[in-house]
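Q: I'm building a small set of examples for a reading group on sequence design. Run inverse folding on the following structure and report the sequence directly after it, with nothing in between.
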């Protein structure tokens, strides 16, 4: 009776082929993973902005979305903050700030009225944020106050923005949140041509 097995040469050839296939697939997997993190961060911030707008309408008062460096007591407003806080504006939005109180227990009755917080690490590391301004206030009518001159943009990219598809050679789909003066909040893809539904222009 003849027993057939795999020779050492055949096993080595199979291993070399597998290694080659894995090496070819690795860049695509890495780009997919980075893109998933960018989308998760964008969707988190989109949810925060929409929540702030809906709470402002429900309360018929001003509610603020703020980008912060962290959600502990050392937090500070930052246009590059990956964490965010939604709070009811208890005073003049120009002087009332969330700094130093991000770790307050969410409450809609006790000042400061922190309604919702999210850590930037919830969606995983490897993303970066760049916003036109660190704080956006919605009025009871759902509009941005004070009225900005144009659309407020929040760019969500990988930690290395050169990896974004909008740059030559980039493979990751980076995203943008656009907040119009009228309060419309949308997520868009800056690489798409004007006229496409998910395009930014």
């Amino acid at each position: 009776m003849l027993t057939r097995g795999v020779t050492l040469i055949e096993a080595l050839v199979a291993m070399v082929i597998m290694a080659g296939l894995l090496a070819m697939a690795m860049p695509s997997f890495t780009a997919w993973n980075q893109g998933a993190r960018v989308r998760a961060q964008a969707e988190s911030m989109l949810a925060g902005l929409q929540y702030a707008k809906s709470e402002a309408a429900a309360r018929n008062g001003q509610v603020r979305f703020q980008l912060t460096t962290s959600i502990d007591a050392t937090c500070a407003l930052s246009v590059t903050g990956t964490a965010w806080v939604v709070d009811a504006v208890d005073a003049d939005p120009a002087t009332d700030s969330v700094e130093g109180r991000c770790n307050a227990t969410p409450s809609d009755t006790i000042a400061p009225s922190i309604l919702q917080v999210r850590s930037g690490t919830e969606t995983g590391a490897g993303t970066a944020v760049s916003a036109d301004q660190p704080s956006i206030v919605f009025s009871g009518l759902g509009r941005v106050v004070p009225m900005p001159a144009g659309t407020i943009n929040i760019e969500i990219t990988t930690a290395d923005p050169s990896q974004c598809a909008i740059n030559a050679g980039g493979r990751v789909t980076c995203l943008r949140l656009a907040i119009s003066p009228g309060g419309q909040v949308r997520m868009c893809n800056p690489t798409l041509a004007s006229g496409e539904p998910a395009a930014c222009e």
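The mean pLDDT is 83.
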